Amino acid sequence: MPLILENYIPDDNSYLTHGKCRICLERANSINFGVFCCKACKAFFMRSSTNKYKKYVCKFNQACLNDPEKIKKCKFCRWDKCLKNGMSINEERVAKLKNPPNKFTQPNPLESNQSIISKQTDSFNCEHYVKSDHTRILILNQLKEITCELYKENTMEFSSPVLIANYIANSCQKRVYNYTEEFNQFIREERFKVFQKHSNSIVKILKDLPCFLNISKNDLKTMISTHFFPTLSVMYLKFFINDDYYFMFDNDVQLNRDVFAALYNVKARDYAFDYLFTMKSLNMSEKELGLLIPFFLCLTSSNLENGELVGQVFHYYKCALFHEFKLNKRTNEFLNKFNQIASFGPLLNKMLMDTAK
Fold this sequence. Notes:
This protein is mainly alpha-helical. The protein has 2 domains: 30-95, Erythroid Transcription Factor GATA-1, Chain A (2-Layer Sandwich); 113-355, Retinoid X Receptor. It has helices at residues 39-48, 68-73, 75-84, 113-116, 126-129, 134-155, 159-171, 181-208, 217-226, 228-235, 257-263, 266-281, 286-297, 307-327, 332-355; strands at residues 30-32, 35-37, 94-95, 240-241, 244-245, 248-249, 253-254. The strands form 3 sheets. The chain has a 3-stranded antiparallel β-sheet with strand order 2-1-3. Strands 4-5 form a two-stranded antiparallel ribbon. Helix 12 (266-281) packs antiparallel against helix 15 (332-355). Mean pLDDT is 81; it is low at 1-16 and 93-132.
């Protein structure tokens, strides 16, 4: 399975765990005025809020918003982006991640797959996972916004292919292929392209996810390998329509049930499609799907150099995901199904890797 992590080099000297500044895209150090941002943008916003912003003028026809270098020089656009990202003088000035991963005072070891969600259906309430103080909720909301944006950014290219997939699904035309050695070799090569593309997408997401900067490269490889198919399922879930898969390889070849079985075997295909069916039936929002990526990646309890650190990161994303479940009024039936996919994901991942042809 291709894991393209060679270009991912964490900064060993970094103590920052908040991802990128929402204003200038430099590394953030905390939540300031309600937004993950760096110290420079925090100071700029604080200075500007004393009516200085009224004198700001853009010399570049307001073309600075998407240019990190220009936006640091243009006070007008920098102030505008602060407001657009939700900075407010009424929010608490500083809110750091409580016990950041390199300074945790109380270890939170990884729980087993089965125990992670064992309490959900009995006592699922926001307070069990999320303290109700304003700062903590602020952090969780920021995590949700960032993961949702990263999910949408990395699935945006699927918009047109998904429309085509729905058209094919509604046409009820079953595609039948002749499984010659040449065809089998072709679909294996196409699968490799999908794996490579997904690996690159996950690496890109990891670079921008808060709390992942201090996880070692070896642990990241293990995390991605162990949860490769669950995270791929999240990213490509929209192609699963009417109990079949409508992702298209080159040459207009559909990765349907029969093609999937040719790439693995019938038993593995059936387990994979049951998994996809259950995940699709949850009808999760984009915020929930975005949070599933870091949630799944941190759902690794063994073979890690620093399992305690990953467990601490997992704690934040679990809290954010469960908080979103609470806001969306998810039922016990939903939680039981979610428990199934969370518990079975790593097992399915191993099965597909072992049976890949």
